[in-house]
Each structure stands twice: as C-alpha cells, then as structure tokens.
Design goal:
Length: 375
C-alpha cells in the first residue's frame, strides 16, 4: 500500500514537472484578438535613457539610472504614451541575474507609476556584433547609434556551447515576469535577419543568418516554456508579406511563432498603409514596433492617423536625444554630422531638457492619444 502511494505521488510530481516545462502552443486567433480587445490603443516609443549609449549601459548596475528614467517617463506620460519598447541583454543576465531582475522590477515600477506597460525585447541582431560588459565607449561624434550592441553577440552566436546560457537567460527573465501585468508583451528577437551591411557587415559572421535561423525557433520555445501570460512576437521588417509561403525562412519563423503580428516600417505613409492592409488578412493584432524617420517620409503627422484608423499599435523609434544620437540619420555612418546638425532630426521626440523637438508634433501625439483632452 505504502509503495503504491509513493509511486502515485512520484508520478503526480513528475507529471506536474513535465507540464510545467512543456511550452504552451502559439495563441490561436481568438485568444490573440481577445487579448488585444482588452488593451487601449497602444502608442509609445522605443526607449533608451539619454544617459545610456546602449542596452548594456542602461541595465548594468553601475550605470542604471532610475532617476533619469522616471523623469523621461513623465515626459512620455504627458504625451499620452502607454508603452515603451525596451531592449534587454543576455550578458547583463550572465553577469548578475539577480541584480538584473531587481533592476527590471524597479524599471517596471517606475513605468507603472506613469501608466506605461513596456514591451521587453530579448535578442537583437542590429549594430555592433561584439558586445562587452563594463564601461561603454563614448558616442562617436555625429554618428547614429554608434554604440548599440547585438544580443547575442557573434561570439555567442557561433558557439553551440553558449546555447544553455542563452536558454537560461530567456527562461529566467521571462519566467520572472511571466505573470506580471506591468509587462505588455515579449519581443523575442529584433530584426533577426539583419546583417548590418552599412556599418558592421565586414565583421559579421558569414553564416549569421543560418545560425539565427537555427536558434530563433528555440528562443520562442524557451520563452513559451515559462508560460507567459503576455503574447510573444518578433517583427517582420523586410521582404514580401503577402502570403506566408512568400516569406524568407527567418521571417517565416517569426510569423509562424508570433502570437501577435509586429512589423517595422520607415517609409512613406502610403507604403505603411499598404503593409498594414497586407497584414490585416491574417486576422491577428498588429503592432508596429518601429516607425518614424522624418527625412525619409515617416512622420507622426502622417503615420499616427493611419495607425489609429486601422487600430494598429504605433511605437516610434527614439524618444529623447541622448548618447544614442539617433536624431542623426542612418547615412551618418558614411558622412558623420560633425560640422553641422542635419536639417531635420531623424528620430527622437524630446530634446535633453524635456522640450519637444517640435511642439506642434507633440500636440499631434497628444491629440491622437487623447492626452490633450485631459490637460
């Protein structure tokens, strides 16, 4: 009798452990749309405090700046923004997982005070493929995003022995906040197929895309293993989206594993709307996680009305002019703006002192979000 009870208990415990570790399936259309129906119209920015040049400087203990974040989130709240897309980094987790959890919790508490629910980004294929912990180099004068770093970096991406560490990061950080209502969503990997041809292409791994393609489905699986209450996504950003079979292999993984569809578009408003219409036929919520590059035709004035009409979430690149220098355009990598500033800011909404780059632009955002009615 005792043996049978013991065996039954062991079976029960093993079953609980099995189901706890088994990833949940991708949300079906109904669940994704039900989640979206309970959200306000989602509007915000990709966020990095003015005091940080990249994700490492934002999250490392020595340079984490809650006072700056609190101040800048006050500016966001004044515009009616209710989300911020924020990049994490695997190396900070490796260095001090408990400390990073504590800092993320503090960050979410600050965001909550300002009625902002962030989207947290786990991995990113953009810019410098060789991240290093510790003090970060100062901005390169006149150059857009001169210090941003990839996660995982090339050294981790090419080394299969690093995979358990990356898995621990994904499962650890998602698991820590899987049921936290302060988190809006998880962006699993930013622009995974980006090879940074104009800036770092010569030092990228020659087989980077294949390595990312091998890892990306696993990252979705690891994130699901934590059973997050929030949706997972990874944004489409290039190629033909008109049918799943026309997607390139990496984009196909992004599309097939995302609970909600996200995308990037920095083009003219008519192109933005065309891509929205293409994505609407998949009958899932749509989040634009990157837009707004003034000098190439993507502006708040033109994009926000389209996004609101189609009930598409709108998250622009760049919030405050700081060490990231994303008010300089992409071509600053070829011709740095060291003698004079660009005639028009590329990204960013606020100057370092909290004044909007354009007051009329700030008013347009407030009118779109309804914040102007409460002032």
């Amino acid at each position: 009798m005792y043996l049978r009870i013991t065996m039954a208990l062991l079976f029960l415990l093993s079953s609980i452990q099995f189901f706890a570790q088994t990833p949940t399936a991708r949300w079906n259309d109904a669940k994704a749309n039900e989640w979206y129906q309970h959200q306000p119209w989602i509007v915000g920015s990709n966020y990095l405090p003015a005091s940080a040049i990249n994700e490492l400087e934002m999250w490392q203990a020595d340079t984490f700046d809650p006072v700056q974040i609190d101040k800048e989130f006050g500016w966001a709240e004044s515009l009616g923004m209710n989300t911020m897309r924020v990049f994490l980094h695997d190396l900070v987790w490796q260095q001090d997982s408990a400390g990073l959890r504590k800092r993320i919790d503090q960050f979410l508490e600050i965001a909550s005070r300002h009625h902002i629910r962030p989207i947290l980004v786990l991995f990113d294929s953009c810019w410098d493929p060789y991240p290093k912990l510790g003090p970060q180099h100062p901005p390169i004068p006149g150059v857009h995003n001169s210090g941003w770093v990839q996660s995982p970096g090339a050294l981790a991406l090419k080394d299969p022995a690093q995979e358990p560490r990356l898995r621990a990061y994904v499962e650890g950080v998602v698991g820590a906040f899987a049921n936290d209502p302060r988190v809006l969503a998880w962006d699993v990997w930013n622009e995974p197929s980006n090879t940074n041809g104009g800036a770092y292409g010569r030092v990228e791994l020659p087989d980077k895309k294949q390595r990312v393609l091998d890892l990306l489905p696993k990252v979705f699986e690891w994130a699901r293993a934590a059973h997050p209450s929030q949706p997972l996504t990874s944004g489409l950003w290039e190629g033909d989206w008109s049918a799943p079979e026309k997607l390139d292999p990496i984009a196909r993984v992004q599309f097939e594993h995302s609970d909600v569809i996200s995308f990037h578009n920095y083009n003219w408003p008519e192109d933005f709307e065309q891509h929205v219409v293409l994505l609407e036929k998949y009958h899932r919520p749509i989040i634009c996680t990157e837009y707004m590059a003034r000098s190439v035709g993507s502006t708040f004035d033109t994009i926000l009305p389209i996004a609101k009409q189609h009930h598409v979430a709108a998250i622009n690149w760049g919030f405050v002019a700081g060490k990231s220098q994303t008010y300089f355009p992409w071509d600053s990598w070829e011709k740095p703006y060291v003698l004079q500033p660009p005639p028009v800011w590329f990204h960013d909404v606020f100057r370092p002192d909290g004044q909007p780059y354009r007051e009329r632009e700030a008013q347009i955002i407030r009118e779109a979000t309804g914040a102007s009615n409460s002032r």
